[in-house]
């Protein structure tokens, strides 16, 4: 069994990081203009680690991949992402990226970005498959960006409603929100808040037996289409609702939509509500909400600011 570890790069490991950069980039095809990665030195790598940090992957104790971080406002930029060619297709790159995104989320960055070369289509496809979208192109350099998930505690139903309202104020026609979580987790309460943020006509109740309801706007904004997919038998029955015909002009919220409604739109918010556990959690009301933005629509949107302006005890 492979022993794969991703660790924070320390100054004393700068030589290993430098070796990984030279090994990975040196094995790539010749490009015009050539990559500047091979010009990295021990001094430059040490400075990068000291200023912003980095990650190092070891497989069975041997260095296998590395990257450097660069703070760029609300973005965490990945630099010199490289894997030893002899250890490709062993999950090294995916592990490296997953840990980098965890660092970004934990440190409060809104997005992760990096620059890739257009002449390396396999590399570009790697980033696209992992949810990164092209946000800029300068000659052969493509900037790929991914919005980071946001988590917040909502101790009471009122807090969940308030959180939904703040999310609702960010939404507009064509937006899709997928809600998932345990029975009674508060999906409908959050939807009621979204409706309040949109200024739609209520009341918003669980549509379990109606499957879907349309709530028109009272302020001339997009209507809210509220769907409960709990009793649907699968994607085919969801298609029968013809939701895609109203997606462009409405905000569509689908409860129990995980694993079923994702094909409705390239861009969406995936919202998972979980009951909190522990001595400091109110088992009746305490919830933790994770909001994962998907697609270019959410790059650059102040989602984290909106979520964390919900002033609740214990929220990060």
What topology does this entry show?
Elements: E1 4-8, H1 14-26, H2 42-51, E2 54-59, E3 62-72, E4 75-83, H3 92-106, E5 111-117, H4 121-129, E6 133-138, E7 141-147, E8 150-154, H5 157-168, E9 176-181, H6 187-198, E10 212-215, E11 224-228, H7 235-239, E12 251-255, E13 268-275, E14 287-294, H8 303-308
Parallel strand pairs: 4-5, 9-12, 9-13, 11-12
Antiparallel strand pairs: 1-2, 2-3, 3-4, 5-7, 6-7, 8-14, 10-11, 13-14
Short description:
This protein has 316 residues and is an alpha/beta fold.
Share of helix among residues?
Answer: 25-40%
- Counting DSSP H or I runs of 4 or more residues, the number of helices is 8
- The mean pLDDT is 86
Low-confidence stretches: 234-238, 279-283, 310-316
- Nearest-angstrom radius of gyration? 22 Å
For the biggest sheet, the summary is: 7 strands, mixed
| Overall morphology | elongated
Kindly, what is the distance between the CA atoms of the first and last residues, rounded to a whole number of angstroms? 37 Å
Task: Find the count of extended strands (DSSP E, 2+ residues).
Answer: 14
Quaternary organization? single chain
Task: Give, in spatial order, the strands making up the sheet with the most strands.
Answer: 1-2-3-4-5-7-6
What is the element string, with H for helices and E for strands? EHHEEEHEHEEEHEHEEHEEEH
Residue share in β-strands: 25-35%
Estimated structural class: alpha/beta
Overview of the molecule:
This protein has helices at 14-26, 42-51, 92-106, 121-129, 157-168, 187-198, 235-239, 303-308, and strands at 4-8, 54-59, 62-72, 75-83, 111-117, 133-138, 141-147, 150-154, 176-181, 212-215, 224-228, 251-255, 268-275, 287-294. The chain is built from eight helices and 14 strands. Helix 5 packs across helix 6. Residues 234-238, 279-283 and 310-316 have low confidence and may be disordered. Strands 1-2-3-4-5-7-6 form a seven-stranded mixed beta sheet, sandwiched between helices. The protein has a seven-stranded mixed beta sheet with strand order 8-14-13-9-12-11-10. A hairpin with a 2-residue loop joins strand 6 and strand 7 (141-147). It is α/β, with parallel strands linked by helices. Helices cover 26% and strands 29% of the residues.
């Amino acid at each position: 069994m492979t022993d794969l570890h991703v660790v924070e790069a320390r100054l004393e490991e700068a030589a290993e990081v430098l070796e990984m950069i030279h090994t990975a980039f040196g094995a790539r095809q010749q490009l015009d203009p050539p990559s500047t990665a091979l010009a990295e030195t021990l001094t430059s790598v040490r400075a990068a680690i000291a200023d912003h940090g980095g990650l190092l992957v070891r497989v069975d104790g041997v260095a296998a991949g590395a990257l450097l971080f660069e703070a760029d406002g609300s973005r965490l930029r990945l630099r010199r992402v490289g894997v030893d060619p002899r250890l490709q297709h062993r999950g090294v790159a995916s592990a490296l990226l997953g840990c980098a995104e965890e660092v970004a989320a934990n440190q409060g960055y809104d997005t992760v970005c990096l620059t890739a070369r257009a002449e390396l289509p396999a590399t570009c496809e790697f980033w696209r498959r992992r949810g990164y979208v092209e946000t800029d192109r300068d000659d052969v350099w493509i900037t790929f960006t991914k919005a980071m998930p946001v988590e917040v505690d909502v101790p009471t139903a009122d807090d969940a409603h308030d959180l939904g309202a703040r999310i609702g104020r960010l939404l507009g026609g064509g937006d899709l929100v997928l809600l998932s979580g345990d029975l009674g987790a508060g999906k409908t309460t959050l939807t009621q808040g979204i409706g309040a943020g949109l200024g739609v006509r209520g009341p918003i109740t669980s549509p379990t037996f109606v499957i879907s309801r349309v709530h028109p706007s009272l302020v001339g904004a997009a209507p809210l289409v509220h769907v409960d997919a709990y009793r649907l038998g699968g994607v085919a029955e969801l298609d029968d609702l013809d939701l895609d015909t109203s997606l462009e002009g409405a905000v569509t919220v689908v409860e129990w939509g995980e694993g079923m409604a994702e094909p409705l739109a390239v861009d969406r918010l995936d919202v998972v509500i979980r009951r909190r556990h522990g001595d400091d959690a109110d088992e009746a009301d305490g919830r933790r909400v994770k909001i994962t933005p998907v697609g270019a629509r959410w790059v650059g949107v102040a989602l984290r600011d909106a979520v964390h302006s919900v002033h609740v005890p214990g929220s990060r």
